[in-house]
Specification:
The complex is a heterotetramer of chains A (about 200), B (about 180), C (about 280) and D (about 475). Chain B is of the alpha+beta class. Chain B has two domains: about 100 residues, Alpha-Beta Plaits, CATH 3.30.70; about 70 residues, no CATH class. Chain B contains five helices and four strands, in the order E-H-E-H-H-H-E-H-E. Chain B has a four-stranded antiparallel beta sheet with strand order 2-3-1-4, covered by helices on one side. Chain D has about 475 residues and is mainly alpha-helical. Chain D has one domain: Formate dehydrogenase/DMSO reductase domain (Formate dehydrogenase/DMSO reductase fold, Up-down Bundle). Classes of the chains: A mainly alpha (about 200), B alpha+beta (about 180), C alpha+beta (about 280), D mainly alpha (about 475). Chains B and D meet through strand 2, helix 2, helix 3 and helix 4 of B and helix 2, helix 7, helix 9 and helix 17 of D.
Chain lengths: ~200, ~180, ~280, ~475
């Protein structure tokens, strides 16, 4: 009996294994799997100041590109310098005495940069080109900026301190690159992302 | 009707085959030639023939495994070459036939062998627990005939075995 | 399902490179094919290109002993030959041949890499993916020009003592031990130029971007550009020298000097050399 | 003139059965069990000497590899055009050595040559262990060993696949297939013997063999399935073995290097593989025969037959070697011609000539019966042949790099460093160690097949003595077998 069961099981295993083999299945879930799972939150990063993203991006409705200026013209999206923070906050007296703002001004008076920590960190040999993605999806397709950034960064506008949301593994990148996206909001022409090694790896 | 087992050990292989031949011809009630199991230190195709048709299905496993390995192998290789990350390689097509054939051939053999062996384990019912009437001497130099029959037929069989110079007859009860 | 993909695109997957018209402005994904033309008559063998390459691409300096043993890491090297028969060695000068990765269209190194660390890009470059490389060194064994260099030692920890790491180019990986590397035509510059051009809805202009060696060459012996664009300097030079990218045996007049090295092995290199002419009677 | 059956049988007997008694036919079956099982318990002192020496040698290799792992491939004294060295040469050597195990166990099994029965088990073990050693060399050779799994095709989070066009991937697949298949073949063929061990062992060993023998009882059903399976796997193994070494040959033949780009490489490699494997079988035969007191089973006629086989394969190899040279010489490829001249006259010339001498001239000593029956001489000759075959592999790899197509990269001061030599020596230690352990733990003479051999011969003898009862099938089988 057990042998017949073994035979059936191994046959089933072979068939299921073949059917679920990755090359036979485009866009399957395998590439998106990481140790912490799909769409699970990454590790908690302790920042020097718990920057309230929700306050700026959601409540105030500030565009992501206002602070992360590099995203539309370079590889790196840039964490804003302290003078950018001060430029606004020196005119906002109402929150001046809040503990986080006090901390901010402490750094400003000490003339020290804030030692922010990187949250969405890629390996050093990978270069994510923010410019291309922002140009394509924000400037050409006219999608809302929070949606464009949110592909990879998640709903930052509802977070306080940013946490990594997507796995950011190579397979995850590719799972999006293989899809056809419209080239701009006028034409219906679509194309997929590039897939050469040298597009991202340096 | 309760059934019991009996193991007869022989040193003379000719006597053993004669015993089986006679058993087969005897038409005892409560006994079927299918219930005879031969245990021997070496293989005896000639005695196995006497026991009647006991087909081996290993070759069907081999066939399945080889076909699966060959077709599945080629599909696997060529479709993984043609996945989204397809990278053109030095002047060759994305799916080059000769290299894929080499790998297909290897996978054909790999699965052929694996599934043949799987078939062997299934066909020979391995791994199994040894029968309680197993005797270590059948792995040395004696041939053993294990018979399952009705209790009523047992004395006659035992008598037949003794006539054929069985060295020892071990019954279920006598152990 | 990929089987449908296989069946639908079978003829595409069976296409061999290079095929004529592969690089064509009218077709998708073929706006660029980077190529070089190298005039040996102008080259003075000054090694500026090598030096520039060391600076641009984070090449480790290995020292005299390892250089002598052949563990040197120069992506572009100046080869010296004393091959002119008319004059004896002291009188004649050396002829120089700068040799870098030829970015072959049918690169022999690509097919043999077990992990696919090296493959072809759409711009006709022969890409080398350092962190995919496992160091089987098969590509070097199969490269007819021997322009692939293997990191035999752990250079990141030895080649750049304390303040030197600050001068490394952040756009280029510092390669660890046990991997293969080679000339990239300074792909970090090309990618940036392409991205900039794309943002501005245009193609890269001729001369807008050059690799470090071309930039450093004091005599402008090397010309670099996009051969797809018929008006680019390099395309004109290829055309004038009657060298065709898709041919393994060129039919040309005696008056032209252009040739590609080891063309008979059919790697279809992307670098055209122009023969040196020497007035031996003078 | 043969007119009657009786006369025919007498002739058959004269010709095949009584000519060479490769094994005593009246040996008691219990005695076979006893003799072989003794090897699991009390080998001669030499066993431990060999084992300890191999272990020490292996440790030398391990320390060299650790040093190389931490420092980089530079310690192997390779350089940039000359990127492959002894590692790849020795890799081919070990792959090659594995082939004769398949020759003895699968090919001769299908051809009913039953003189192989006492010696095929250890040859099959040799296949397995030399393949393991070869696999290690691939690892040792890699610049980044810790990433070796990139070659394996498995679904991963990078969505990448190995490059299936690369001969190295074919190699990996072929070696994996060959290693696992020959291990399975070895194991399946050993199950009846493991059952014998189980029935005779006590204590911890009993449970060990009980586990491995899977409850084998030798029933007719088991034997019938066993026979079909063993034959099928043998049939698969023969083309597999040929394909494995052909694929190793394509590692070279596929590339553009002069001296490698040769069509006759695959058969040349296969012949060389069988050659070095047969020579290694002779060496191990002599060692095992002494160490485990197997004089009764590993008899001189069997050694002689193996020696004849070696001689024949040596001549095949010599022929293919000459084909390689002459096709290059008369060919049109100036690069290849110049590489050939370089081998014969350049820096590697002494080793090249030595290789040709050891590979093609030394085997002629095997043509003499007196030498074939002289054990010390056979030991020396078999080792010499293997040295020759090892040199052959080195001569394939190194001179080509030293003198390739591109003159700027010609490299004449290439000599393997102590680290390379240490790892190569360590591999011999590793192989010997595993092999000796195998022979100590598992029966290295196949008991049930020796019994079959004795049984069939006694049947044939009985048949020829009593011409009326002859079973023609058995007579023919025995005839071919001897």
């Amino acid at each position: 009996m057990i042998h017949r069961l073994l035979a059936v099981l191994s046959f089933v295993f072979l068939c299921v294994g073949t059917a679920s083999a990755e090359p036979l299945k485009w866009g399957g879930p395998i590439g998106s799997q990481t140790s912490d799972g799909y769409n699970a939150l990454g590790p908690v990063v302790k920042q020097p100041i718990e920057f309230p993203h929700y306050r700026h991006a959601r409540d105030m409705g500030i565009s992501c590109l206002y602070c992360h200026t590099g995203a539309r013209r370079g590889y790196v999206s840039v964490i804003p310098r302290i003078d950018k923070c001060i430029g606004c906050h020196q005119n906002i007296e109402s929150v001046r005495n809040k503990p986080r703002i006090k901390k901010l001004f402490e750094y400003w008076e000490k003339k020290e940069p804030i030692p922010w920590k990187k949250v969405n960190d890629l390996p050093d040999y990978v270069r994510f080109n923010h410019e291309r993605h922002v140009q394509r999806f924000y400037f050409r397709q006219n999608r809302p900026i929070r949606e464009v950034c949110g592909y990879c960064h998640g709903d930052v506008a509802n977070m306080t301190v940013d946490r990594r949301v997507k796995s950011l593994s190579m397979g995850w990148c590719i799972s999006c690159h293989q899809k056809d996206h419209r080239e701009n909001d006028v034409s219906m022409k679509t194309s997929h992302g590039p897939y050469e090694c040298w597009q991202c790896h340096k | 009707m309760s059934k019991s087992h009996m193991l007869a050990l022989f040193t003379d292989f000719d006597e053993a085959s004669n015993a089986i031949r006679e058993l087969k011809a005897s038409n005892l009630e409560g006994f079927n030639i299918k219930d005879v199991t031969l245990k021997s230190p070496i293989e005896h195709p000639e005695i196995e023939e006497l026991l009647g048709k006991r087909p081996v299905y290993v070759q069907f496993f081999t066939l399945f495994g080889a076909i699966f390995g060959g077709l599945g192998g080629f599909t696997f290789i060529s479709s993984s070459q043609a996945t989204f990350l397809l990278q053109p390689k030095g002047g060759k097509p994305v799916i080059p036939i000769p290299p894929d054939m080499v790998l297909t051939y290897e996978l054909f053999i790999l699965f052929g062998v694996y599934i043949t062996v799987l078939g062997f384990f299934i066909g020979a019912k391995l791994p199994m627990k040894r029968h309680k009437l197993y005797n270590a001497r059948v792995s040395e130099d004696q041939i053993g005939i294990l018979i399952k029959a009705d209790d009523t037929a047992m004395p006659a069989i035992k008598d037949l075995m003794t006539r054929h110079k069985a060295l020892e007859i071990i019954g279920e009860g006598s152990k | 399902m990929s089987i449908t993909n296989l069946l639908n695109n079978w003829s595409f997957y069976r296409n061999k490179r290079p095929y004529r018209g592969q690089y064509d402005l009218n077709k998708e994904y073929s706006e660029y094919k980077w190529a070089m033309a190298l005039d040996l008559d102008i080259c003075t063998g000054c090694n500026a290109c090598t030096t520039a390459c060391y600076a641009e691409n984070n090449l480790p300096v290995v020292g005299k002993k390892r250089f002598h043993h052949g563990q040197v890491m120069h992506w572009i090297r100046i080869e010296r030959y004393w091959d002119e028969k008319m004059v004896d060695f002291p009188e004649q000068g050396a002829s120089f041949l700068p040799m870098m990765c030829q970015q072959c269209e049918a690169a022999p190194c690509e097919t043999v890499c077990p992990v696919g660390a090296t493959s072809h890009t759409n711009d006709g470059l022969n890409s080398q993916n350092y962190h995919r490389c496992i160091g089987s060194r098969y590509c070097s064994a199969n490269c007819p020009y021997k322009v692939r260099y293997f990191n035999f030692w752990n250079y990141p920890s030895t080649a750049w003592p304390a303040p030197l790491p600050d001068q490394l180019n952040p756009d280029v990986t510092v390669r660890t031990k046990g991997i293969m590397e080679k000339c990239t035509f300074c792909v970090q510059r090309l990618n940036e130029a392409k991205s900039r051009a794309r943002t501005e809805y245009r193609l890269v202009r001729d001369g807008e971007v050059v690799p470090a060696c071309v930039q450093a060459c004091p005599t402008s012996a090397i010309t670099f550009g996009n051969i797809v664009d018929p008006n680019s300097k390099v395309a004109k030079m290829w055309k004038n020298q009657q060298v065709d990218l898709y041919k393994d045996l060129q039919e040309k007049d005696n008056t032209v000097r252009g040739y590609r090295i080891l063309e008979d092995l059919r790697p279809f290199p992307s670098v055209m050399y122009m023969e040196r002419i020497r007035d031996t009677e003078a | 003139m043969i007119n009657t059956f009786e006369e025919r049988d007498v002739a058959v007997e004269k010709r095949f059965i009584h000519k060479e008694k490769d094994i005593r036919e009246d040996i008691a079956w219990a005695q076979i069990n006893k003799d072989v099982l003794k090897s699991l318990e009390r080998p001669r002192m030499l066993f431990w000497v060999i084992f300890i020496a191999s272990l020490a040698l292996f440790m030398v290799g391990v320390s060299c590899e650790i040093y190389q792992y931490q420092t980089g491939m530079g310690v192997a004294n390779l350089d940039n055009p000359h990127v492959w060295g002894l590692y790849i040469g020795t890799f081919i050597f070990w792959i090659g050595m594995s082939h004769s195990g398949t020759l003895l166990s699968a090919i001769l099994h299908i051809m009913h040559a039953d003189w192989r029965k006492p010696i095929y088990r250890f040859a099959e073990a040799m296949t397995t262990f030399s393949l393991m050693t070869a696999g290690l060399f691939v690892m040792v050779h890699l610049g980044r060993v810790w990433q070796f799994y990139y070659v394996v095709a498995y679904p991963n989070e990078r969505w990448t696949w190995p490059n299936f066009q690369s001969p190295l991937v074919w190699d990996a697949t072929a070696i994996f297939t060959y290693l696992t298949s020959s291990m399975i073949f070895l194991y399946i063929g050993m199950i009846p013997d493991l059952a014998i061990c189980r029935d005779n062992a006590t204590g911890f060993r009993k449970s060990f063999y009980t586990f491995l023998s899977l409850g084998w009882m030798g029933t007719d059903r088991q034997w019938a399935n066993f026979r079909v399976t063993y034959l099928t796997v043998a049939c698969f193994l023969i083309p597999l073995a040929v394909s494995v070494h052909s694929i190793v040959a394509t590692d070279f033949a596929v590339s553009q290097q002069p001296g490698w780009h040769i069509t006759s490489f695959p058969p040349y490699f296969v012949a060389g593989a069988l050659y070095s494997g047969c020579a290694a079988i002779i060496t191990l035969f002599i060692v095992l025969r002494y160490v485990f007191r197997f004089e009764e089973y590993m008899t001189m006629p069997i050694l002689e037959k193996t020696a004849k086989l070696t001689f024949a394969i040596a001549m095949v190899w010599t022929y293919l070697n000459l084909v390689e040279y002459s096709s290059t010489w008369y060919g049109d490829d100036m690069y290849a011609k110049q590489a050939l001249i370089y081998r014969a006259t350049g820096d590697f010339a002494p080793y090249w000539w030595m290789m040709n001498f050891l590979g093609s001239v030394v085997p002629f000593t095997l043509a003499f019966k007196r030498i074939r029956n002289n054990i010390p001489a056979m030991l020396v000759i078999s080792i010499l042949l293997n040295v020759g075959m090892w040199l052959e592999r080195w001569m394939i790899v190194s001179p080509t790099f030293a003198n390739g197509i591109y003159p700027w990269t010609w490299d004449h001061d290439q000599w393997p460093s102590l680290v390379q030599w240490g790892i190569v020596a360590g591999s011999f230690g590793w192989f010997n160690m595993l092999f000796m352990l195998f022979c100590k733990i598992f029966p290295s003479v196949s008991m049930y097949e020796v019994k079959e051999m004795v049984y069939h011969r006694s049947l044939v003898r009985k048949g020829t003595e009593d011409a009326t009862q002859i079973n023609p099938e058995l007579a023919v089988e025995g005839g071919i077998a001897s």
